[in-house]
Amino acid sequence: MKTGFATLHPMVQAVFFLSCLSVTTWIMHPVILVISFAAGLVCIAETEGKSGLWSSVRTGAGLSCFAAILNPLFSHGGVTVWGYLPDGNPLTMESLIFGAAAGLLLFATLNWFRLLSKIMTSDKMIYLFGRLFPRFALLLSMVFSFFGKIRQHYQEVRAARQSLLPGMRPLSWIVRIRFSAGMLSSLIQWSLENALDTADSMNSRGYGSGKRTFFHLYHLHTEDIVWMLILIAGNGWIWYAFCNEQIAYSYYPAVSMEPASVQALSVFVLFGVLCLLPVVADGKEYWKWRCLRSKI
Q1: Residue 72, pLDDT above cutoff 90
Q2: Residue 47 to residue 17: CA distance in whole angstroms
Q3: How far apart are CA 92 and CA 72, in angstroms?
Q4: List of residues 6+ apart from 255 with CB closer than 8 A
């Protein structure tokens, strides 16, 4: 049974993810990135358990490290030169720091999108955008549902092809490349066939031939309004501080940061609380349930 954050109104959930992603990607302050990254992992651990946390770390660590290493190879701005690359371009401290920040940003963004695909189901997407942008809502819901399907199909294909591999001895790199290429080919073929089947099914059901009707079970309650006001007020304060350069940070040409002020510290604390909204909402329901059980 879904409780806590998963039962809130879809509009509250959409505003929450929009606020987390916009603040993380736009402000790009090191403290903001660390808070967003840590809070995203906490929310994944609370929502999906240890297996989901390990899967997220395993997926995001490689991509973020790749982004962190790639930036100094192509970006050579900065005033603090630590050395020179074989092609003669300088290796600067600023490019390394910006690469690490970009990698952390990518990791945090992947975490929030993982939670978004888990909580914002296709029916919620159609409810939010179906009336104003019906085609966009349908496309968005299909994309998010497709991620789960392709992950499941990937596991099935991987298990089937691993059963055909010879024994448990170490495999050469040629066999590994062939193994990966075969899996990729199978996934592409399945994706194309699934897209054609979906299109034929929608066409046979008369999609787009007449005026659509809408049905939903979502209603805005007092608790949803309270959470919405908290999100709006918190984001308003964060963006107000950002526009007044209270949390300004620069990577190029030299690393510089405004001295920590009371307003900046309040922004960091407030953003951490807002990012942990799913944990707070689920914890509230958990303690409510414990209190009710103790009265029986």
Answers
A1: no
A2: 15
A3: 7
A4: 93, 94, 97
pLDDT band at 56 (very low <50, low <70, confident <90, very high): confident
Q: Are strands 249-250 and 256-257 parallel, antiparallel or unpaired?
A: antiparallel
Helix ranges (H only) for 75-216 are 93-119, 122-129, 134-162, 173-204
DSSP label of 87? T
Residue 110 CA neighbour count, 13 Å, CB half? 18
Q: Could you give the 3-state DSSP secondary structure of residue 81?
A: strand
* Calpha distance 151→155 (Å, rounded): 6
Give residue for tokens 């995203």.
Answer: 40
- Which helix or strand (DSSP H or E) is residue 41 part of? helix 30-74
What would the pLDDT profile of 225-265 be if each residue is shown by its tens digit? 988 999 999 999 999 988 888 887 888 877 877 777 888 89
Please provide residue 221's backbone torsions phi and psi, each rounded to the nearest 5 degrees. Answer: -105, 175
Q: Token digits for 232?
A: 């709006």
Strand partners, 256: 250
Distance CA 219, CA 119 (A): 17
| pTM to 2 decimal places | 0.76
104-113: pLDDT as tens digits: 998 899 899 8
The answer to whether 161 touches 185, Cβ cutoff 8 Å, is no
Kindly state the tokens that stand for 49. Answer: 């358990």
Which three-class secondary structure state does DSSP give residue 10? helix
Instruction: Tell me how far the alpha carbon of residue 38 is from its chain's centroid.
Output: 12
Average pLDDT over residues 67-94: 80
